[in-house]
Design goal:
Length: about 290
């Protein structure tokens, strides 16, 4: 099977969709997407419905964003053109069973549910529905997310643009084949945890060498943020930027030698590979349709 060419999209390419949207599940990611959709003016608040079992949470969202809310999942889906599935994997089956009788073939279903394949959702709904599967990451909650989208066979080009625009509202987007989403999970899905460990270690290094924890934290966080921003905005390979701060016989080259001797590079590569393999294993377990 020929692998799909990677396509990258950026925030400035947004599309105003102006469609009715149901967000099923208003946890961290559901709330982040809600905020992104409204801030990007993709759809007016009056066309957005948040659905959750937690009425207190819904009340907060309604007051803050002036959207519609409901605990009735069928009502939310019936009133929408786009259905965003933002529930936990263990509750997806129940949610799909609930909406199966009201889902329409003209609706777009977008799932952020980790590990749950398009074929599983299609089989549970029993319709030729346009389904998009995506793997966002936690940085979407601060509009700096990295999301990969895979499109089901019934997704039209116009629906692809809609899905892309929603996730552009909270970060950067790439499109991949569904088979590549496990690798995306291992890299950008789990990746923030790796970076948090790096930041934590840098902070402790600064403290070890006499800096206060407050100062060390501020410097470490800004160093990681600034370095990532420079890679993104310059378009240069990280190795080129690394060489620009590595002088002969200096402090940086000695530190790099120490990191290489302890296998930092290979450990991070192995971390992505191991997380990818575990994602594949979990996906096989979760996608058994009874």
């Amino acid at each position: 099977m020929q692998k799909k060419k990677l396509e990258v999209y950026h925030e400035h390419e947004e599309h105003h969709i102006d469609r009715s949207i149901a967000i099923i599940g208003s946890g961290n990611m559901g709330s982040a997407l809600l905020k992104g959709i409204i801030h990007a003016k993709l759809a007016p608040p009056k066309k957005i419905t948040a659905c959750d079992i937690n009425e207190a949470k819904l009340k907060i969202l309604a007051n803050e964003w002036k959207i519609k809310t409901t605990t009735d999942i069928q009502a939310a889906v019936q009133a929408s053109d786009i259905v965003l599935l933002c529930v936990k994997p263990q509750t997806l089956s129940k949610a799909l069973q609930a909406i199966k009788s009201v889902i329409r073939s003209d609706q777009l279903v977008i799932s952020i549910v980790a590990g749950m394949r398009i074929a599983y959702i299609q089989q549970m709904l029993g319709e030729r529905i346009a389904i998009v599967r995506t793997m966002p990451n936690i940085a979407a909650t601060v509009d700096e997310g990295a999301a990969a989208l895979a499109f089901g066979e019934h997704v039209s080009p116009a629906q692809q643009k809609i899905a892309i625009s929603i996730f552009e509202a909270v970060g950067d987007v790439v499109t991949v084949s569904e088979e590549q989403l496990d690798a995306v999970t291992g890299l950008s899905g789990s990746g923030p945890a790796y970076i948090y460990m790096v930041i934590e270690a840098l902070i402790d290094g600064g403290v070890k060498m006499g800096l206060s924890r407050e100062i060390s934290t501020k410097l470490s966080v800004q160093t990681v943020l600034g370095s990532a921003t420079l890679v993104k905005k310059s378009g240069l390979h990280p190795a080129i930027l690394r060489d620009q701060v590595t002088t002969p016989g200096g402090t940086t080259i000695n530190a790099i030698h120490e990191l290489e001797s302890h296998g930092l590079r290979s450990m991070l590569i192995d971390a992505v590979a191991i997380a990818t393999k575990r994602s594949e294993e979990l996906s096989k377990i979760m996608n058994k349709v009874s």
